[in-house]
Amino acid sequence: MKIDHHNVAWSAATPASERDVRAAFTQLLKREPESAEIVQNWLGRKWSLGDLARYVRGSAEFADRSAKALMPLLLKTDRYQAIYGLPHLSLKDARDCVDRCVAVTEAFERLFGLTNLAHLKVADIGCSLGYPSLYLADRGADVTGYDFRKENVDFCRGAAEILDIPAKFNLAVFDWPLARQLVADGTNVVLLWSVLHHVIEQLGFVETKKIVAYLLASGVTLVCELAHANEDVTHKWRETLPANELDLFDSKSVQVSNIGNFVALSGISQRNMYVAQMAGVTLSPLASERQPERSGGAAPVRIGPLTFSGISHVGVPFKQYASTEDLFVKFFRYGAANRFDVLRRMEAEFFANKLLASTGLLPKLQSVSRAPNFVGLAFDKVKGAQGLIEWSRKADMVQRRSMAIKIAEGYATIAKQSLYWNDCRDHNILVGKDGRVIFIDFELASPLESEDNARRARWLLWHLCTNAKWDSSYVSHLPTSELPDLPKFAPNDLRATWVRIERLIPTGAA
Ligand SMILES: C[S@@+](CC[C@H](N)C(=O)[O-])C[C@H]1O[C@@H](n2cnc3c(N)ncnc32)[C@H](O)[C@@H]1O
To answer: Out of 30, 119, 405, 492, which residue is the most buried by the measure of CB atoms under 10 Å away?
Structure first.
């Protein structure tokens, strides 16, 4: 049995009204402002803000109020989809969407390691009544739904408002201007669910294929549910479809995964859902300081899946990653965030790597890939390297302390270039197979200090040298207390290690 998690009305202590719950929750947040994400032990369980939103939607008062507000809008639509979060408004034979939403989020985790939907900037084309848009936005993605039917857009906006979900909806036809806008605004995922057969009927197969190719070449991940020519329907669009639905993608330049098969048209059809991405980039090798991009020599290279951040807890839809056999490519997508900030990050990464190249502490920057809407920086892949924390789990104290000194030496070398790393985090330090320390992620590097680098480094190294408890929340907030003093009876090798580290990473102001 499939459980529709977001529509579950909590059976425990259903609230008298949504307003009561909100009021109670507001009080709690006032008392515990630090616990904005998780408020513990209210009604005997742990709550996240998402839980709370789903909980209040279970109240009778909310059901009543939402029906009153939305029914007039809903009755103007074809009621094709189920209504996200408001099952009492859905028609019985409406197209349920949770199966496709779950399939997509699971596929993104499987294919791209994505666990935080905040890294997605999504366009849902032919959004109908907004189910996938609202589902993804309710879980942190930045989503805009587009439909060429005004009634649909009006309903979606009303639903988003009453559900208090920050999905946006716009009236638009899927054609070149919209495709160009999506590329320019940094959209990194486009949902094309059961809509391309209409587009093919409107624009023709060749033109539709060109728009699809343009989005893919711009580094956009497409999620396409495709109607096919064998469907048992009399609709005119059937005649406009190719014999093989996969002809929509150019097999040489696109990588495609089939992520499921779904019932459409109330059981008449079964349609496949595909995730498609560009399969290669053109890399221009770097030559010298004077001539950063060697003319000629640009070559197409096949890449693996275009992944999303697996680390950042805040959304970074402007960053994606891909690998070739020997290179690790980091993409900076303009438009997905403040353009100036994205450019600054890309340039900081570029120049910090050039500046520190001779130290051997960073993976060598080999080439760049330039497109109108993104830049990819391709670094040597450090094969077999492990993250510092992973490495330290298998290391003994002697190895940990000698690694701490190596890291401190590397840190001091970087500081000598009058450069602040501004991102000293354990996940940005790798240990090579040969025990070499590798520093990565210099997009925040700057001659200006934007966080207390030395304090961060000392906390991290203290943890490494002592195996003191390390909390994953330290990535964003270091403990407010100072580092503990060395215990009086600290073993000699710890004392000696720490004295060296204090010399390499000064404690006081320079
Ligand atoms: C068959 S429904 C699919 C709805 C939804 N994507 C799903 O799979 O549940 C097609 C939707 O696409 C919209 N649509 C069709 N052609 C379109 C176009 N060229 N541009 C924008 N929307 C379009 C229709 O209004 C309708 O809401």
So the answer is: 119
CATH of range 282-380; options 3.40.720, 3.40.1800, 3.30.200, 3.40.50: 3.30.200
Q: Atom 4 of ligand 1 has which residue's CA nearest to it?
A: 128
* pTM of the entire predicted model: 0.87
* pLDDT given at position 19: 59
From 124, 195, 222, mutation site for ligand 1 pocket: most ligand atoms within 8 A of C-beta: 195
pLDDT of 22 strictly over 70? no
- The answer to whether the CB of 199 is under 6 A from ligand 1 is yes
- Using a 10 angstrom Cβ sphere, with 0-12 exposed, 13-18 middle and 19 or more buried, the burial of residue 325 is exposed
Does the C-beta of 116 come closer than 6 Å to ligand 1?
A: no
- The CA-atom distances, in angstroms, between 275 and each of 111, 217, 246 are 9, 14, 11
Domain boundaries 386-504, corresponding CATH code: 1.10.510.10
SS3 assignment, position 149: coil
Ligand 1 close to Cβ of residue 95 (< 6 A): yes
Q: Which amino acid is at 45?
A: R
Alpha-carbon dihedral angle through residues 231, 237, 242, 246, given to the nearest 10 degrees = -70
Provide the pLDDT for residue 373.
92
Give the pLDDT of residue 164: 86
CATH class of 77-278: alpha beta
- Give residue 205 CA to ligand 1 midpoint distance, Å: 17
Ligand 1 pocket test, pick from 128, 150, 238, 266 with the greatest ligand atom count within 8 Å of Cβ, gives 128
**Residue ID of nearest Cα to ligand 1 atom 25:** 149
Beta strand 221-226 pairing with 269-278 = antiparallel
By three-state DSSP, how is residue 375 classified?
strand
Residue 509: what pLDDT? 42
Does ligand 1 lie within 6 Å of residue 328's CB atom? no
Cβ contacts of residue 252 below 8 Å, gap of 6+? 279
Q: Average pLDDT for residues 316-334, to the nearest whole number?
A: 95
Domain positions in the chain: 77-278, 282-380, 386-504
SS3 for 290-318 is CCCECCCCCEEEECCCCECCCCCCCCCCC
Q: Does 355 contact ligand 1 (Cβ within 6 A)?
A: no
Per-residue exposure over 408-437, b if at least 16 CB sit within 10 Å of its own CB, e if not: bbbbebbbeeebbbbbbbbbbbbbeeeeeb
CA distances from 448 to 230, 283, 351, 359, 407 (A): 62, 31, 14, 21, 21
Q: Which two tokens stand for residue 299?
A: 């070559």
- Residue 150, judged by CB atoms within 10 A of its CB (0-12, 13-18, 19+), counts as exposed
pLDDT mean across residues, the chain: 87
